[in-house]
Amino acid sequence: MRRDVFTAEQEDFRSLIRDFVEREIVPAYPEWEKAGEAPRSFFRQLGELGVMGMSIPEKFGGAGVDDFRAAGVEVEIATDDGTTGHHGFVTELLARPLLNLHAPELAVFDQPLAGEVAARRELLLGLPFSVGYGVEIAMLIDAWRAVGLDGLAQVHLGVRQNAHQSLRELSAMAYAVLVAASTRLYGPEFIGAHVSGSIALPPQGLGEPMEMRRVPIEERPPLRGQFASQCPPAAPG
After folding, report:
1. pLDDT in tens, 136-165
2. What is the distance, to the nearest Å, from the Cα of residue 99 to the centroid of all Cα atoms in its chain?
3. Residue 29 · residue 85 · CB < 8 Å
């Protein structure tokens, strides 16, 4: 059950900032990151929106706001995947450090959880597939082991703006990514002994129970083996 901790006024303000972030910041952020700065026009937009220098004291030229609005701006910017270089929290706080620690060669990939890939049929037939959010990192590790780093490449296909997700949803996503990677790094025996198909999430309010959220972590075997088992035996010569 969701907690109603925000008033209608606060929700309206958060929605205003969220729409601005998704409309004005997310599409332009990659170019700003390359340039090392945002254009002056962006700061004029912030001023027109009324959020420029909100928490700066009035004697220094700011608005002197000390209520929820300043924090609301920071929260909506921080929780939008687009403002972290379009990688998202799960990539930057889990997938990238995990790959740096256990498979440093793969740290070269800008978006290890990109979700859009192309591969030769022969390679895909030999790879197992995770059924949930772990499919991208699983495929990356498996393909790397199959063909080596020289057999992999990345291309820039533009910007894709993903739907905003709650932190609880991101926890489930991160769990699936961690399980898929750990299956390959530690082996299925480790996973069988230590991993369940649910993640425990804390209560959302006083007196409420913890949530045990089901997270798909099953693995489908390589299709090559499936095709081979379905082929009829060859006729005797």
Report:
1. 999 999 999 999 999 999 987 766 666 666
2. 15
3. yes
Torsion over CA: 113, 116, 122, 127 (sign): positive
Q: Specify whether the CB–CB gap between 145 and 185 falls below 8 A.
A: no
Sign of CA dihedral 38, 40, 45, 48: positive
CATH superfamily of 8-84: Acyl-CoA dehydrogenase/oxidase, N-terminal domain (1.10.540.10)
pLDDT digits (tens, 9 = 90+) for 22-42: 788 778 877 877 787 888 888
Q: Six-digit token pair at 210?
A: 């913890």
What are 234's two structure tokens? 């060859």
- Asked whether 101 and 184 are in contact (CB, 8 A), the reply is no
How far apart CA 105 and CA 108 sit, in angstroms, is: 7
CATH architecture for the domain at 89-228? Alpha-Beta Complex (3.90)
- Cα separation, 25 vs 23, whole angstroms: 6
pLDDT band at 126 (very low <50, low <70, confident <90, very high): very high
Nearest residue to 23 (alpha-carbon basis) of 3, 7, 45: 45
